[in-house]
Amino acid sequence: MSAGEDTSHILSGLTSQLSDRDPDETAEWIESFDDLVDSRGTERAQYIVRSLLQRAGAQSVGVPMVTTTDYVNTIPVDQEPEFPGDEETERRYRAWMRWNAAMLVHRAQRPDIGVGGHISTYAGAATLYEVGYNHFFRGKDHPGGGDQVFFQGHASPGMYARAFMEGRLTEEDLDGFRQEKSREGHALPSYPHPRSMPEFWEFPTVSMGIGPANAIYQAQLNRYVHNRGIKDTSDQHVWAFLGDGEMDEPESRGFLQLAANEKLDNLTFVINCNLQRLDGPVRGNGKIMQELEAFFRGAGWHVIKVTWGREWDDLLDKDRDGALVDIMNSTLDGDYQTYKAESGGFVREHFFGKTPQTKEMVADMTDEQIWNLKRGGHDYHKVYAAYDAATKFKGKPTVVLAQTVKGYGLGTHFEGRNATHQMKKLTLQDLKDFRDHLRIPISDEQLEADPYRPPYYHPGADAPEIKYMMERRAALGGSVPERRTEHKQLHLPGDKAYEVARRGSGKQQAATTMAFVRLLKDLMRDKEFGARVVPIIPDEARTFGMDSFFPTAKIYNPKGQNYLSVDRDLVLAYKESPQGQILHTGINEAGSTAAFTAVGSSYATHGEPLVPIYIFYSMFGFQRTGDFFWAAADQMARGFVIGATAGRTTLTGEGLQHADGQSPILASTNPAVVTYDPAYGYEIGHIMRSGLERMYGGNHPDPNVMYYLTVYNEPIVQPAEPEELDVEGIVKGIYLLAPAKIDGPRTQLLASGVAVPWALEAQQLLADDWGVSADVWSVTSWNELRRDGLAAEEDAFLNPGSEPRKPFVAQQLEGATGPIVAVSDYMAAVPDQIRQYLPNEFATLGADGFGFSDTRAAARRFFKIDSHSIVVRALQMLARRGEVDANMAKDAFEKYRLMDVNAGTSGNAGGDS
């Protein structure tokens, strides 16, 4: 049923397709039910109705599934728990916070600053947060370990305002809002950004849709570490505060089934249903709360609606014929928004005036009383009842749908207006009206003295309200949000774990994907370290050769394996377990990245370091989920992401949308991603070891990074680690792999990943066919070489009197003569990143354009990146320099039939795709 259609109005939705053949009998049944509610209460009535529905099913009486309920509160008045706090005291300091939050944004918009901010989101959501702060959100010092709270990004001024009231921030800090460099030391980022404020924020949420996804996978991680015996998280809860407009993002809804399937009753979504998105109504012609109720209930969630405040209770109690509820059901969201932008008289005429019964219902109420009929999300009692029920409900995750007004209390210029999200400041009259509404003890003279800098308000730490507030937080375990990075020391594996990588593959062929998997298996066998590794795999484990992990490490499933596995008799049987180590996320790269983020930041959220190793189809990494990786960087997640089946030409047969020729460039845009394109297993071993030391060794100044390794599915003989290997060169990005074997005109061949064998073949062809001497360099990271080069340039710029540092790539190739040909299985921009740091003449061969289905050799010949193309390009450059005969390049071009895609020989068949 679509929200807004007649069939979605619940009073008619169940009976509209049927005729009432005996209205008198129907009335008797309804009267009997009403008597049951009056005499025994709603809880008993609920049980009777559920019993009747169950019996109806057993008797084959067709009853449709009720996906939406009336547009009223889910929790009946007689089932509401008693509010445990001092509501008036809480209201007073909530008013101070609302004032300070608005002033923080208003002051940041003064003419000489003008950095913006959002006033209206927190104004409408303050009650939702304060009920949580005062009674539910548990801090890090709580005996249960504390909750994880994902705050709605645009509401951040409210969190800063509370931190100011708690003494965690000063007025000078508030005035540093959105001025992170110009007010360094007293600066606040615009939104929840842990990287910008690493002791305060835990979770970045303002990139719409990622907060909901990450909250679900955080709740899953809590259960995962509990089931595996790493930490007791049974008393920890995950809260995610979201906007109703945000729920249009596919990521916001796309993971709901995971939370339901795994029965994550440690998770509560609170959706601030102010009925508005950034430009206008979320569903002007519909009802977003009803739509979300149906969607969440259909996904297997427990749904609690907080629609109306307590002022409506008496009216609803009088609504014996359902006329008021019918109007509530049929009124469109666009009209509800308009009502809050008008007046009590307007609501009387246009809402209650729709039927004689409802008009008479409010006849003895003044327009002011009608105007003060609150939405449920602004009522402490209703919100408390919802949160209490959510935290006590077992077996399902819960969503609280709370109806609010955007810009609540800010005055007629803000409340419910389409433009309210973009409004940054208040007029002098707005300030006075807002002050009066909140009863803030600030005089007209103080406001008039400088309307751009109205004062913040704090009554002092000794005020009874502040003492009460601090006592509540102390009882709940301290301040929220708070991020802590102290964690257990991780015992890193020793030399033995890397032996398999150093040995090579002997006479057998093995792709770098398989070389990586063999190394990973040994790392997971390490007695002290192995249990901390968390492999994360979408539905491609067999593609990556990781099905061998299933019987031993097992796939995490909190329900275990309750079916008879079809491959139970095989050595590599599919095995699920509550203690499983592998997070197998299905066909779900975005969910995998969310899982990676939760696991990779466990050192901070739980004080328990885990090492996520997310292995995925290379093309479906940074291209598909780049925004998730950006949020992971903001959350300072640590771990390894492995782009398997990499390269534009290596993944034969799969074609355009599977051929990755650009991921290193995409990865380079994320400052927290350290990218490598290794050619051999021993290179992978040293890169992994260096990464573990950096991220988890405890001595690196910047451990909050993610290592991205591209690995391939083309089988080659993996060489054993050479003696006197330049390990520093591997880690920093380039080392001399194969010096020239003959004397002659000199060239330098730089290659990475799967292209290194082509460069070695080209070295042999240049020597045998043309008498040219070539050095072959393995470039393990074009990206890191460029970053180092840029850092050297910046260092020279900022230290004009000092001797400039040479970039590492220039140091390595110092004395290496002749032109350079750089090649990889990626677009030319990847190797071209280092061109400016080398004095040599430089040429790049790249696989630019779309990929396609063909053999490796044909594809490489088409893109002119194969061994023969390298030879011809080197000869062309040498000929221009006069170091070889001018016709030599032309002869080579014809000899190797460079324009014939069927003449290519670089690459072999085989390798799973």
Automatic annotation (TrEMBL):
Question: What are the UniProt keywords, alphabetically?
Answer: Oxidoreductase, Pyruvate, Thiamine pyrophosphate
* Region ranges (Disordered): 1-23
Record bears the keyword Oxidoreductase: yes
Q: Which Pfam families match?
A: PDH_E1_M, Transketolase_C_1, Transketolase_N
Domain Transketolase N-terminal positions: 149-311
> What are the Polar residues biased-composition ranges?
9-18
Name the needed cofactors: thiamine diphosphate
Domain Pyruvate dehydrogenase E1 component middle residue range list: 495-715
> Which CDD domains does the record match to this protein?
TPP_E1_EcPDC_like (cd02017)
Can you provide one Gene Ontology molecular function annotated for this UniProt record?
pyruvate dehydrogenase (acetyl-transferring) activity
Reactions listed under catalytic activity: N(6)-[(R)-lipoyl]-L-lysyl-[protein] + pyruvate + H(+) = N(6)-[(R)-S(8)-acetyldihydrolipoyl]-L-lysyl-[protein] + CO2
- The UniProt record lists the Transketolase-like C-terminal domain at 733-866
According to the UniProt entry, what is the EC number of this protein? Answer: 1.2.4.1
Q: Top enzyme class of this protein?
A: oxidoreductase
Describe the task this protein carries out.
Component of the pyruvate dehydrogenase (PDH) complex, that catalyzes the overall conversion of pyruvate to acetyl-CoA and CO(2).
Q: Which NCBIfam families match?
A: aceE (TIGR00759)
PANTHER family for this protein: PYRUVATE DEHYDROGENASE E1 COMPONENT
Q: What name has this protein been given in UniProt? A: Pyruvate dehydrogenase E1 component
The major lineage groups are: Bacteria, Bacillati, Actinomycetota, Actinomycetes, Micrococcales
